[in-house]
Amino acid sequence: MKTRKVAKKRFKSIKIIKEYKLDIIEERKNSYVKKDQVIAKLENKVLASQVSLATATRDLAKSNVDRLTKLLQLDSASKHLLDEAEEKLLKAQTDLNKKIIELDETIIKAPFDGKLGTFHVTEGAMVKKDDLLVVAYDASSYIIEIYISPKVLKQLSVGQAVMIEDRIEGKISDIEETLCKDNQMGLIYVKIEQCKNCLIGQSIDVKIATVTKKSVLGIPHSAIFYYDGLEVVYKIEDNKSIRTTITTELVGGNFTEIKSGLKENAALNYQVKENRQPKIVWDLKSKSSKRGQRWYAARRLQ
To answer: What architecture does CATH give domain 2-10+140-207?
Structure first.
């Protein structure tokens, strides 16, 4: 089976969650980052000062609680004063936690080990909540999303081999159990470790073997043409190209199975169609003619 679908890695759009000025971009486009590595910082000098002040307030409140606890043990302070001090400590700690969270929100970190895409804002720019900063891609693998007919979907299973672009081997990692409501197609995911020159979002060729046969008569795809809606080939007979209707079945690799219309070792012209010119003397041993046309022989595929 051959289809064209979207290829992409696991990714996450990193968005701004507070309205601030973008102060520093620590990493740049195409940089590889580790999880929790700082990518960028919003302007946070005021928040940093507030965190320092809240920390000092909390520390003072804690010291007061510790002092009153010791005095109460010596009967030199009342339980009421200690309770009030503990309430102030609780409030100071709560205020500090809030400020720390606000400060953390101005420091943007990588969500996982991966690679950064293009930044959508520049240093010094004012940003708003939900503005897109950058997209982080998982550098460890690609995920290929393939929409497929329900009939074919039933023939597939997790772990089944898949060939991408005729050069990359992958395996089905997951199969959706419900059809897409927009196109009524099934959806499968194929995981591959590397995909050189693949671009996120591009369409690529994918082949999945749903049926396997042995000892079938096959010819290359390029030897098959279409005439009046029928599949035809051009057999070489008596030094002429003769249009012949065929029926085909399975397609795999570069070959198509011939169900009827050809016999084994039939010579096929695949560069010119019907021979309306003077006879061409074909040299079937060298797979060429005096005019340079080449030919294929239908053969048994094991």
So the answer is: Beta Barrel (2.40)
